[in-house]
Amino acid sequence: MWSGSPQTDEGLPPTLAAVPVSWKSVGPCKGHREPLGALVEASAGEKAQAEEGPAASRLDMSRLRSSSMEIREKGSEFLKEELHKAQKELKLKDEECERLVKVREQLEQELEELTASLFEEAHKMVREANMKQAASEKQLKEAWGKVDTTLFTEFQTWRASPTLDKTCPFLERVYREDVGPCLDFTMQELSALVQSAVEDNTLTIEPVASQTLPTLKVASVERGSTNTCALSGLARTCRHLIRLGDSESHYYISPSSRARITAVCNFFTYIRYIQQGLVRQDAEPMFWEIMRLRKEMSLAKLGFFPQEP
């Protein structure tokens, strides 16, 4: 309570403290009254919630730790399995590499042995070739002392201007001594036809098995037969046929007749090669090859020829 009258400043409102206020007790608002028990229960619930919060947090953390440990364990097992697989694959690769190394070493050793063997065989062949060449040269020198120089002179003259004219001295001698006697068969008419076909290079010899026509024309023989030679007229097993030029006539021939015809054909083939310039040798090797072919004609004429299997 103020004992004196309040002092006011002129022109200003009075202060709150200077305003008299009557105080009275004011109770709680009727609209906001709550039972005491509800308040107690709410207070207890808040307390319980406050107490359960840390426990739930600890439970969640424990679960997280457990899940993390489980993930780490599974990851560790997976990595261990992968490592085991990788180690196993590496071991297999190491074993394969070792096997390949052994194979390579074995191949290298075999290659070295083969190379050495080939070199040895090559040297052996060279030595044998040199020995054969020396022996051939020796035989050639010995043969030159026995050869009729007239034959070689006739050959050299023919070689200077090769021809198939049988009136030249060289071929006239070969015809008289080898070709004529070799193709002189019992069936004279067919023999002459055969010689003409050989000279013209129009004679064909083929196996009987390749001939499909059963009916054949044979000179001086009643019927063609695989048991009768058309040239000699003798009963022989005939395994070949001859055809002259473009004629459709075929003739069965025995192995002996075939050998004689073949020997003459080989001689004419060689001298044709010389005439065409296909044989590029010195005079001596050519002459000795012709002498060898003449020897074959002489042997075939006498009935000496390789027997067929």
Automatic annotation (TrEMBL):
Matches recorded under Gene3D superfamilies: 1.20.5.4880
Keywords from the named record: Coiled coil
Coiled-coil spans in chain: 76-124
GO molecular function, one term: guanyl-nucleotide exchange factor activity
GO biological process, one term: exocytosis
GO CC annotation terms, alphabetical: Golgi to plasma membrane transport vesicle
Pfam family name, one: RAB3A-like_C
Source species, domain of life: Eukaryota
PANTHER family assigned: GUANINE NUCLEOTIDE EXCHANGE FACTOR FOR RAB-3A, RABIN3-RELATED
Name under which the protein is recorded: GDP/GTP exchange factor Sec2 N-terminal domain-containing protein
